[in-house]
């Protein structure tokens, strides 16, 4: 089995300096655990003008990294697609969204489309399936829920931040890891036609009342969270208090109705 | 109501005796026509006339000119009947704006409702109609703002099949915009449709009007702005949900192409284990504060209710609960649906952590505690006595 992990040139969320994307290091950790338990070939792939801090991924459990050298304004998609097709990988892992580029999270989907592979999003754990040629993927859902999927290989999987934390950096691993440099394909990126300006945080919607509601309703929605306006029971017997609480919790659906 | 308005200066000038070097006034003389001609206003009578009868709140209608109608007799106050929202029909839409709500379990999430608000914004700007593309069985679509409803032929977890159906609908129905929520499922679907159709996706729109949408790019350092494209995924809390008018939610028929099974061979939903899920993403949190001293009962209660354990700073400082369980500004800010506070008075820092919770239940001995005021169900009682009573009641109901 051959596994590839796609690494993108990210930027640190606070300082803005070049840094690996944390969820991609988690993907490296997932793949390295899979290799240790079940045996496989593991390779990292990066397409861009410069490796920079992505060399650190070698210290986080990646045995070798292939750098496809492209221009600064080139689209990485054709280079990655060609390298992945040539490598005949069974499992391709990628992060969810890059940090520092377009940040739209479209590349794994476009890549899956170009390679004709199925894509599974938001993996938190990986295990081989019972029959050969299948993979068990645990998908992270909102509010801590999970979905267990059985998928046919080859497949492209994006990794969720709920996956196990990335392995700590090991200097010896970084020294041992092999960095291979290959020329990529020149593919000038098409212009998006969007105007760009410095980012300004937009105010988030606070009032719960909708746009068409009356002024009285908007006022009520803006103030009711602070004032509560709920039921008040003063010194009820404990049994009555317990009945009221259970009825309220069952009414809003957090406790099963009996 | 309107007397002639007095003009004291003119009256004084009329009383002045002419021809004297020093000013002399004959106060006995009556002024002849010393009025200014403007009628004197009676603001109280005007207000009585402008008063709209029959409303609970005092309301004045200033547009009614005073004197047009007689002063109405005071009527007994009646609560106005909440008028049903007007139904708006769009029989011949100029274009279609489609949206794909998540609607887990057939219930629209707040994010879905905001998506409807965005779709209505785009559609109403040019006389278009909103088409909701839903999995089977989503409720409340008419009130949410859907003019048409198209049911997608999807069974089970099959995002690729859903994306193929959406791609077919996008091409065949000539949709001007197709909107997705930027959530785990909606975002995934949006990118699948973008890859299938070759259209550019405007991912995570943070503001949206009929003329322009914006999104963050380059690690939230630049803002991209442009006219709304075909495929948009909307960030949460960016657009207000639709309200005011009711829409038809007419079912539409469309022949979707048959899809073959994808690469996903089996899918099984595993519900979150409330004991292990992190506080930040827990759905129901039960917290202990300084009013709780019996933590064995508290843990038993958490297990019985199926809640995620939380605690106040006091309890965590005392080492009675782990620091990871602390709720509040210096602990975890919750995103839970329901918060059950046992023996917590509600310091401002604690209430910050609960600000996003929809429902709060509080048990506290202090009637004037801030948590009692915040709660939807507030019980002024000792939490130490309520906890065993709750456990007994749950056990009774389980055995019954």
Automatic annotation (TrEMBL), chain A:
Q: Does the keyword Metal-binding apply?
A: no
Residues covered by the Electron transfer flavoprotein alpha/beta-subunit N-terminal domain:
9-196
Annotated coiled-coil positions are none
Top-level taxon of the source organism:
Bacteria
User: What SUPFAM superfamilies would the database entry show?
Assistant: Adenine nucleotide alpha hydrolases-like
Q: Which InterPro entries match?
A: ETF_a/b_N (IPR014730), Rossmann-like_a/b/a_fold (IPR014729)
- First and last residue of the signal peptide: none
Q: Does the keyword Electron transport apply?
A: yes
Q: What is this protein called?
A: Electron transfer flavoprotein subunit beta
Source organism of this protein record: Ancylobacter koreensis
Q: What is the lineage of its organism?
A: Bacteria, Pseudomonadati, Pseudomonadota, Alphaproteobacteria, Hyphomicrobiales
From TrEMBL, chain B:
Q: Which Gene3D superfamilies match?
A: HUPs (3.40.50.620), TPP-binding domain (3.40.50.1220)
Q: Where is this region: Disordered?
A: 1-48
What UniProt keywords are attached to this protein's entry?
A: Electron transport, Transport
For this protein, the record's Pfam families field holds: ETF, ETF_alpha
Q: Where is the composition biased (Basic and acidic residues)?
A: 1-14, 39-48
Q: Which residues form the Electron transfer flavoprotein alpha/beta-subunit N-terminal domain?
A: 97-273
Instruction: Report the superkingdom from the record.
Output: Bacteria
Q: Which InterPro entries match?
A: DHS-like_NAD/FAD-binding_dom, ETF_a/b_N, ETF_a/FixB, ETF_asu_C, Rossmann-like_a/b/a_fold
Q: Which family does the UniProt entry place this protein in?
A: Belongs to the ETF alpha-subunit/FixB family.
**PANTHER family cross-referenced by the UniProt entry:** ELECTRON TRANSFER FLAVOPROTEIN ALPHA, ELECTRON TRANSFER FLAVOPROTEIN SUBUNIT ALPHA, MITOCHONDRIAL
Protein's name according to its UniProt entry: Electron transfer flavoprotein subunit alpha/FixB family protein
């Amino acid at each position: 089995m051959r596994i590839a992990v796609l690494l993108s040139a990210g930027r640190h969320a606070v300082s803005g300096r070049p840094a690996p994307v944390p969820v991609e290091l988690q993907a490296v950790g997932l793949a390295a655990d899979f290799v240790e338990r079940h045996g496989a070939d593991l390779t990292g792939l990066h397409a861009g003008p410069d490796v920079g801090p992505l060399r650190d991924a070698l210290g986080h459990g990646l045995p070798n990294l292939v750098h496809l050298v492209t221009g600064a304004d080139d689209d990485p998609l054709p280079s990655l697609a060609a390298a992945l097709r040539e490598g005949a990988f069974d499992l391709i892992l990628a992060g969810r969204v890059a940090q520092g580029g377009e940040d739209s999270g479209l590349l794994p989907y476009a890549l899956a489309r170009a390679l004709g592979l199925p894509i599974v999003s938001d993996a938190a754990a990986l295990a081989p399936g019972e029959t050969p040629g299948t993979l068990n993927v645990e998908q992270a859902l909102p509010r801590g829920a999970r979905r267990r999927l059985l998928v046919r290989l080859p497949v492209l999987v994006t990794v969720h931040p709920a996956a196990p934390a990335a392995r700590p950096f090991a200097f010896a691993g970084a020294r041992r890891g092999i960095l291979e440099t290959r020329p990529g394909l020149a593919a000038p990126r098409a212009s998006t036609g969007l105007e760009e300006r410095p980012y300004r945080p937009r105010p988030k919607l606070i009032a719960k009342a909708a746009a068409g509601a009356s002024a009285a309703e908007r006022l009520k929605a803006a103030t009711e969270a602070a004032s509560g306006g709920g039921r008040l029971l003063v010194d009820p017997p404990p049994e009555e208090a317990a009945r009221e609480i259970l009825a309220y919790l069952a009414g809003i659906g957090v406790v099963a109705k009996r | 109501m309107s007397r002639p308005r007095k003009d004291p200066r003119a009256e004084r000038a009329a009383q002045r005796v002419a021809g004297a070097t020093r000013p002399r006034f004959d106060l006995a003389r009556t002024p002849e026509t010393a009025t200014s001609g403007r009628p004197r206003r009676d603001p109280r009578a005007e207000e009585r006339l402008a008063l709209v009868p029959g409303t609970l709140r005092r309301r004045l209608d200033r547009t009614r000119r005073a004197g047009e109608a007689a002063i109405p007799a005071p009527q007994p106050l009646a609560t106005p009947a909440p008028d049903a929202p007007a139904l708006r029909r769009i029989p011949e839409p100029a274009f279609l704006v489609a949206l794909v709500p998540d609607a887990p379990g057939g219930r629209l999430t707040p994010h879905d409702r905001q998506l409807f608000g965005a779709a209505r914004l785009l559609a109403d700007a040019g006389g278009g109609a909103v088409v909701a593309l839903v999995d089977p069985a989503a409720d409340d679509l008419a009130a949410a703002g859907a003019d048409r409803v198209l049911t997608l032929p999807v069974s089970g977890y099959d995002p690729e099949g859903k994306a193929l159906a959406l791609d077919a609908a996008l091409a065949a129905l000539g949709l001007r915009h197709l909107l997705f929520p930027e959530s785990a499922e909606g975002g995934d679907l949006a990118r699948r449709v973008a890859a299938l159709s070759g259209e550019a996706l405007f991912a995570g729109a943070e503001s949206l009007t009929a003329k322009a949408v914006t999104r963050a790019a380059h690690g939230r350092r630049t803002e991209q702005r442009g006219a709304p494209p075909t495929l948009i995924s909307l960030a949460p809390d960016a657009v207000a949900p639709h309200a005011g008018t009711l829409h038809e939610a007419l079912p539409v028929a469309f022949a979707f192409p048959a899809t073959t099974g994808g690469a996903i061979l089996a899918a099984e939903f595993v519900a979150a284990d409330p004991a292990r899920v992190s506080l930040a993403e827990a759905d129901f949190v039960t917290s202990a504060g300084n009013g709780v001293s019996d933590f064995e009962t508290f843990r038993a209660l958490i297990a019985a209710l199926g809640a995620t354990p939380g605690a106040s700073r006091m309890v965590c400082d005392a080492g009675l609960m782990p620091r990871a369980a602390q709720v509040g500004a210096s602990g975890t800010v919750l995103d839970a649906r329901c918060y059950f506070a046992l023996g917590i008075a509600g310091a401002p820092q604690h209430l910050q952590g609960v600000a996003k919770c929809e429902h709060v239940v509080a048990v506290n001995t202090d009637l004037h505690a801030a948590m009692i005021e915040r709660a939807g169900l507030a019980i002024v009682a000792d939490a130490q006595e309520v906890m065993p009573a709750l456990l007994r009641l749950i056990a009774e109901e389980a055995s019954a």
